[in-house]
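hey can u check if this looks right to u? its 263 residues, i copy pasted from the old doc so theres a chance i mangled smth
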Amino acid sequence: MEHVVLFFKTIVLRPYVFIFLAAFLFSAIKLIGWPRTWRFWLISWATAFICEFSSTRTGIPFGWYFYNGSTIGQELYFFDVPFMDSISFSFLLFAAYCVALGLLLPFNATLRNDGSTHKPLRFEVAARTSWSVYGLTVFLFAFIDMVIDPVALRGDRWFLGKIYYYPDPGWHFGVPFANYVGWAVVGLISLALYFPLDRRLIPITPPPVITQRLLLGIGLYYGVLVFNLGMTFWIGETFMGISGLLMHLPVLIILTTRLSTLR
């Protein structure tokens, strides 16, 4: 009963996390269906939790960092890892996956009766589980954390709270490079487990316009990005915010340009 109470306290304390989680579940079910969605969530959450549990005790794979327990009694923890933190990896990995699909999925160009060109994305399993999608998803997954972690580290200046710290602050606004390597490791392991399952499950019958459903996951990626950039500027970290904005702007331009041609 205590864990149930703490779970509801977590929702009250971290409503933005559960809004993003709900957006993930909705967009994932629309795109890949429930059988794949729950497997994706479970694999990515378990991988992230194990890696966080390991890193707070051995420094592998994120490097050394520690949760200070300042919100114990206010939100749910598993051992010393806040529940909301490990579940965040799931929706961020899926969002990064959708952006990678938007950038890399092939399309077929067909001519409509009115003379316009129709370019539907091909969503077959070979395309969505390719090595290029695998690598780009992992990159985009770690890439968005280069905006998230610096502002999260300053959580005492906004409503996140000061919940963790690095004993040896790093070069990127106090975040060690090992942290981003750890994010890449979580992505690599999670997709290495999920992609073979995707290939073995009942094939997906894609909707006529897959792009519209893909945009839900892409919107989640940029929704999280805007939220964290907003917090960065709100606490007065202007240089850090501009840095994060300029890092992600080229990807957004390339993605928007490509998707605008798919009609």
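The beta strands are 66-67, 77-78, 81-82, 110-111, 117-118, 164-165.
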